[in-house]
Amino acid sequence: MVKIIENKLIDAEPLKDAVLIEGLPGIGHVGRVAAEHIVEEFNGEKVLELYCDDFPPQIVVKNDGTIEYMKNEFYLVKEPVPMVIVLGNTQALSPKGQYVLSEKIVDIAMKYGATKTYTLGGFGIGKISDELKVYVASTSKELSEQHKELGAEFRTDGGSIIGAAGLMLKFSKLKGIEGICLMGETPGYLVDPKSAGNVLEMLSKAIGFEIDMKKLDERAKEMEKFIEKVQMQEQGMQAPQHQDDLSYIG
Amino acid sequence: MVKIIENKLIDAEPLKDAVLIEGLPGIGHVGRVAAEHIVEEFNGEKVLELYCDDFPPQIVVKNDGTIEYMKNEFYLVKEPVPMVIVLGNTQALSPKGQYVLSEKIVDIAMKYGATKTYTLGGFGIGKISDELKVYVASTSKELSEQHKELGAEFRTDGGSIIGAAGLMLKFSKLKGIEGICLMGETPGYLVDPKSAGNVLEMLSKAIGFEIDMKKLDERAKEMEKFIEKVQMQEQGMQAPQHQDDLSYIG
Amino acid sequence: MVKIIENKLIDAEPLKDAVLIEGLPGIGHVGRVAAEHIVEEFNGEKVLELYCDDFPPQIVVKNDGTIEYMKNEFYLVKEPVPMVIVLGNTQALSPKGQYVLSEKIVDIAMKYGATKTYTLGGFGIGKISDELKVYVASTSKELSEQHKELGAEFRTDGGSIIGAAGLMLKFSKLKGIEGICLMGETPGYLVDPKSAGNVLEMLSKAIGFEIDMKKLDERAKEMEKFIEKVQMQEQGMQAPQHQDDLSYIG
Amino acid sequence: MVKIIENKLIDAEPLKDAVLIEGLPGIGHVGRVAAEHIVEEFNGEKVLELYCDDFPPQIVVKNDGTIEYMKNEFYLVKEPVPMVIVLGNTQALSPKGQYVLSEKIVDIAMKYGATKTYTLGGFGIGKISDELKVYVASTSKELSEQHKELGAEFRTDGGSIIGAAGLMLKFSKLKGIEGICLMGETPGYLVDPKSAGNVLEMLSKAIGFEIDMKKLDERAKEMEKFIEKVQMQEQGMQAPQHQDDLSYIG
Q1: How many CB atoms lie within 10 A of CB C16?
Q2: What confidence category does residue D111 fall into, taking pLDDT thresholds of 50, 70 and 90?
Q3: Nearest C-alpha neighbor of D65 from the set C70, C150, B191
Q4: Minimal Cβ distance to D26: which of B27, B183, B250
Q5: Matching Gene3D superfamilies, A to Z (chains A, B, C, D) (predicted)?
Q6: Is 80 exceeded by the pLDDT of residue D242?
Q7: In the prediction, which pLDDT does A234 show?
Q8: Where residue A1 falls among pLDDT bands split at 50, 70, 90?
Q9: Among A29, A184, B103, D101, which is least packed by CB within 10 angstroms?
Q10: What pLDDT does residue B227 have?
Q11: pLDDT in tens, D148-169
């Protein structure tokens, strides 16, 4: 059993015909950078946090001596287009946790008025490339064709979409709403604002809003600085010592 | 707790005295190729899909921009012999998931009228061989002897049958029906139509049907092309980044 | 949740003041060889089998074409001393499974009349040694001292007893009966009849029975032959292929 | 589901406005050494033991032939300051176990009167250093500032606090009491009494008690000797053999 705690921060009115947008951590942090930018530019209001006992068993230490929990967060944006945006500092660790959490996120977003789901992610190509494509995969052929007309391409590698970005499409469909995943090609940088910008541009065309891109790079750089610092600090660490003794007999 | 979702596609009448045939992914995809060939040749009708939160937490992207879930599928064949055929693109990931899913598959098949179980698989020999044997193991000595008379051999390696192909025999027996596993020797190719053909031939003799083998190679080649493409694409990928920070204190 | 299926084979009367003896697989198969020898010499009657979905998800193929489940088995011995003996071809895989199964085994044995628990195991020393000691650890200082007088020694390595051999002592104590673990030093052979003989000798002195050791070596050799054959066969095998596609986006 | 057994040893009266202090195993055993020293110096009374089926599936063998369970222990200290101290020889193994156990520990401590939580741990710096800092992170900015005035510093690495030391802060806050983690820099020794002393000094200033440090080194040396012996013994051990046969077909 995976336990999820909902921590409602504000009693918000549901939106009308909102778009659920997922931007959880993933390759190149493409979806996360794109979704955070939307929240910042359109003054998203944080309404709810999710905690889950399938998240990494830890807390994050902040510069001011306070702590932050591992969490997924829901933001509501009313203008220019109603959106329910899901951010966070982690995804679930186990397969079961991934399934349970993805379903829960779709459930909650639908309560906030979501009637369509966009999941945003990176598609690692493992090499530098001048032109970074945006791919689309969705729960209906018609929807995918619509995004193709906007410039997105179809993947022909036969591969998969792992984690919330994939499973939320499945649970959207099972619960009666359509789901689209936009994947931005990325060479595989730690944080890739260029790929995030490409995905964001495609999303804005698809949903129909305009967004100022000026601060996107700046925000991505801040995220990168933070993640780099954490990685350096990790290299000086030792593995935890959970137990005294492991010798065998039996 | 392993959660299984049954997605019934068609309200089908149960068959009479049907044979349950399992062809899930495994070594050389021997069982899968054989079972898919039966479905294709005898126009099997897909009646039900199973989803499970112990499957890999992902979805598959198709060439036309649409998506496919990780799933196990039930097909009914009425002629020449009533059969309930189980295909799929995955098996459960954890030991518990393997047990729960294998039991569920036998349960559902029995509701569709199955009174005997055949599981089909490959037996890797790790070397090229001119003659590829077919082995049999079953829930009764009598049954195994019957297949020996048809040309199958007994394994003397003391080894095991891992996954659904093994556990479905156990749950068949516990629920009161007999179970037989046919294993085709395979050098260990990605997809081995020759081994699949051998298993299929043995099965057709055992159950009593004739089947056209002309398209078997062709279908196996398509499956191989797909699986190869996926593997190549994987090599350009990076591992997912689930969390920001992993430094230790405690 | 770990699911355990009890398959009662015979309606047996509980014994009076029986000794529970555990001989599940472990290092050098010391406990297993010793406990199987008791069952064989004293004509133990198999009364119950346990299956568990935390066992390896597989079945074993036998030379005669039939199959064997992964299982733990209960045998009753009435003479010369009442004993409930637990054998098996596996232990549980996960920590939780180990705990749940160890508790269940003690529960069942107590229903069959067990009022004291002996767990038997090997203690790997990683080198050849002329003299192979037998160690004792138990739930009471008094009991351990009694076995010391019979020639057993105390371990001073501060190490642990992993698996059923350790946890069954804990659950015996929590349920109100004493528990003793006898550990035979073993260089770490695949199957070590010499170490098993040492443990058996200590056990017979402690409980008070005489047992013919003539066939011990022979039985250990058969077990070794079987296990070796399995290991050789494994080396020709490939890893299972559970899924088609593992590429990442998210 | 993670199962926790509470073994109450004494019917103790709850304390008034007690401080919960966590000293479970971790890097440099910093928190454990510090917390054990408090228990010893102030004659803490052991009132309760916790067992959990997400602990390592083993028991510990002691020099006198008796055994010890894997456990977390609660001690009450009345003077000079009411304290509920949590020691133990292990932490939970899985993420879920970590979450469930951390919540349970806070629950129990609150029943014993805890109104504030201190978790103690090491912060590995991976190099020798003359000056070993003590860091603080807490559930409120005000609290962290108070400890800064006492000489503690804030971490700026953006990293995490893994395990009970982190999660107990989260559950303290969710249940309405404040939580502070004190982390002593440590080069990463097996057992680091110097770092433990630094943490202890900070804690005594923060809570307001005086403690004799004379025996701290001695106790840390004993713990180190024990842990070293275990590690040496482990190197002579072989991995457990859980099953007979692992060959594949399916």
Answers
A1: 9
A2: very high
A3: C150
A4: B250
A5: PAC-like subunit
A6: no
A7: 56
A8: confident
A9: B103
A10: 79
A11: 999 999 999 889 999 999 999 9
Q: Is residue C40 part of a domain?
A: yes
DSSP secondary structure of B61-99: EPTTSBEEE--EEEEEE-SSS-EEEEEESB--SSHHHHH
Going by pLDDT thresholds of 50, 70 and 90, the confidence category of residue D234 is low
Across the interface, of C31, C91, C247, the residue whose CB is closest to A160 is C247
User: D161 vs B123: CB contact, 8 Å cut-off?
Assistant: no
Q: Least CA distance to B233: which residue of chain A? A: A157
**What are the DSSP calls for B208-226, one per residue?**
T-----TTHHHHHHHHHHH
CA distance B116 to chain C (A): 16
d(CA B1, CA D96): 14
* A155-175 pLDDT, tens digit each: 998 899 999 999 999 999 999
Q: Please report the ipTM that was assigned to this predicted complex.
A: 0.90
CATH number (domain holding residue B12)? 3.40.50.10900
**If you average pLDDT over residues C77-88, what whole number do you get?**
97
Q: Which two tokens stand for residue C140?
A: 């009471």
- Taking the CA of residue B100 and the nearest CA in chain A, the distance in Å comes to 14
Band of pLDDT at residue A188, cut at 50, 70 and 90:
confident
Domain membership of residue C223 (yes or no) is: no
Confidence class for position B204, pLDDT limits 50, 70, 90: very high
Residue C231 neighbours by CB under 8 Å, 6+ apart: none
- Provide the token pair at B63: 């060439």
Residue C140 counted as domain residue: yes
d(CA B140, CA B150): 16
Check CB contact under 8 Å for A65 and D137. yes
Q: Which residues of D touch C (CB under 8 A)?
A: 1-3, 5, 51, 53-67, 69, 93-94, 226, 229-230, 232-238, 240-248, 250
From CA B101, how far away is CA B90, in angstroms rounded? 11
Chain-chain contact of A163 with B57 (C-beta, under 8 angstroms) = yes
C226 in a structural domain: no
Question: For residue A121, which residues of chain C lie inside 8 Å, CB to CB?
Answer: 249-250
Which residues have CB under 8 Å from A110's CB, separation 6+?
A: A20, A175, A177
Alpha carbon distance D49, D58 (integer Å): 16
Q: C58–B166: do the CB atoms touch at under 8 Å?
A: yes
Domain boundaries, position B108: 7-208
Cβ of A54 within 8 Å of Cβ of D95? The answer is yes
State how many domains chain D has. 1
